[in-house]
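subagent[fold] <- orchestrator: predict structure for attached chain, return tokens only, no commentary.
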Amino acid sequence: MRGPARLGVRALARRIGTGLARRIGTGLARRIGTGLARLVGTGLARLVGTGLAVIVAGCGQPSTTAGPFAEVWPELHEQADSLFAIGATAATTRTLRAAQAVVRAPYAPEWQRRELAQAIRADEFWRRAGAGVRTELVRAAAGVRAARRASHRDSIGPGEQLAADAYHRRLELLGADAPSTAIAALEYADLSFRLSRTARTDSLSTHAAEVLERAYGPRHPDLAMALELQARTLKNFHGGSALPRALDLYREALRMRVETLGPHALGIASVYHEIGNLERLRHHSAAALDAFRMALSLRREAYGPVHDAVASTLTAMAILEGGRSHFYAAESLAGAAIVASPPGSSTPPMSRAFRLGVWGQLLRHNGHPQRAVQALRTAVALNEQAWSLSPRDEGSTIQSGLSVHGDLALALAELGSAEEALNVLERGTSRILLERSGASSMLDSAGWFARVQRTLAADEALVSWVRSRFAVLGSDDAAWAVVVRDSGPPRWIRLPATAGRLPGGARLRDVFWGELRNAGGWPVRLPGGERVQRLSREMRVAWFDPVEPALAGVRQLLVFSPEQCGGGPLEALGDDHDGWLADRYAVSYTNSASLHALAREHARAWLRSSPALVLGDPSYRRDAVRPWARLAGSREEVASVTEAFPGADVRLGDAANAPALRSMAASGALERLRLIHIAAHTKADGAHLLESQLVLAPTGSGEDASYLSAREIATQWRLNADLVCLTGCRSASGMSSAAQGWLGFQYAFLRAGARSVLVSLWPVDDAAAALLVKAFYADLARSERGGRLGSRSQALMRARQVVREWRDSSGLQPFAHPAYWSGFALFGEPGRSADPVPGGRPLAAVHRSAAQR
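subagent[fold] -> orchestrator:
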């Protein structure tokens, strides 16, 4: 991370000789360089520290710019770091003292002189410290280097542990403001980024930048690295609005690297590469291509044609050409990237897997499915290898490459391998939930598909909409759908109309779902009109009509697509008679077909008198720093729930707070509940994994509110609830992942053990939400058969119709627009009218048993 790897004594001498040639003549420099090449270890340090310094000092008028020794210090610093990391502290001291002779004005730039001064101060501290402190610091130095090696091998979990240990050792011994601590923080931040721990990455990289600027001044390569980390986080996790700020940070990092390393230094190639990626995302193709060409030229000059870095830029250029619909050029570039990173080279497994995935996708698009399957199978195997070395958490899955399973599934479907395609798709979807529940082992058995089919009634179908997960093709590759019924093979259906765009270049699905989200958050109620009807019909024609022939006799649809139907609820698609699919199907959503089957196998009786918790109308303070509006309609929701299910534990006002729920979780009281209803605001966070929060009543005079994060619920709660309802705005929101879907509250409650979760997809109208909740719970109470709970999805279907058709005192229908009635979605096991299997094992216990295995 600090610069090129140590070149060795001969190469170092050659550099010194070459630099001297520019000042004191080729012949003398050659003699000095040749002499240095004969020397090793302390001899080199002694010569550099005495005779050579004298010779250089006496040769002519000093220049005001950095001289030949500007290239020497990175090598000496790397050598000193290497020596210290193996415990050779005396040799470290000799190397740093020798460096003082050459790393000085006017022969070395200021940042190098300041870095050397900091290194010497650190060396003096080490020598004064006791043996125990010195040993700990040596371990920290070794840990930083080991973390880098682990990161390069894609051993991300162990690498993060090594980096964390090194950082905390230095933090304890040297303090937060030591440059060495900042360097360790950057290593830790880099690995945290690869595990999608964005809050930690932001915090570590920001503080490291402040420390390094104070220590080394406003221009330093490590400071540039901190800026690049901040930019990378903005680019990957903060959406399109953050791209200009990310580009500014990359440009500042580029200026730093050019000023400190020179315009042709290898270190600036990575910045050009990232600028190219950013310009591609901003649809500035010419600027992106210029940046990629600069990166490729520098990398080829330094490494030759075969190297991981060269292959990385070739792949980025392939993605750019694919986005411009130059598919054959893109395939050629992607193939060249594969040649540039052959098996057995130093290429990390995930890097090669990504390149094979891009190449496979382009091969499939260009009509070569057999070759695509070969490439994508290898990519899947490499990603599974990397996954085996990753922590088993949601962050790992986001950048794990498991989404390439979807591309392999599509290629297999094109070749007619329908059941294998479905199996591969399942393996790449919601991996954490699959492994925790035991559903992943189901996929290894020969009869897994028959087991899924046995859980389906004749009037039910599992449906998934699948798009190529890399999304590198700017014109949109056509999506596919797969339908699973209670008998027969899976049916894979290509949806050609999903590849088109509207006039102006926008995607139909983006426009339609954006229309609903914006209408839901608009302060004035909007009537349902021709525009939304037209868009909804066009969505149905593109995304649903090709699927419908496979759904004869179906009344209940179980959607197991992470992104639902192209990004939103299927129910909002319109028919040709001003109606909606919500009128024809009871729809629910599940993370995977295997998880649905497991939940069905462990269904159980549910009594109306089962314990329930209802929380609503938290007493938010009006004078808070961030005031939250009172949810007046939530009192009506609470009344509706308690009317349908009497005897519930009701928490209102000040009692609706986070500490109360934490106490119930710690005591096991939450695990005994069969119904949990929470009517409170939610604070959505799409940039930080599982950091969306439930906003509850304050518990102290100095607090604005009390909060519960999705992370706390997912990792610390244990639930056995049949139904959790979250009626606050955007309770489904959170970080989105290609293979995981929305990692919001529905995911957190399902991971904690809930069987089904009702959430909102966008801002909800208070009155419409109260009306829907009342109708939903009343329908559940009426649909009981022999003391058992009926279908939650059918109850929601009828509740939507009640909201849509409700008329006010003037006879108008204020909630006719689909934004008001389709914004609630049911995730998990939907229940069904037929009696469930009696005595089913609690699903939370199944999750725990699988996790222990």
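orchestrator: received. Logging for downstream: Residues 1-67, 834-853 have pLDDT under 50 and may be disordered. Residues 131-152 form the longest helix (22 residues).
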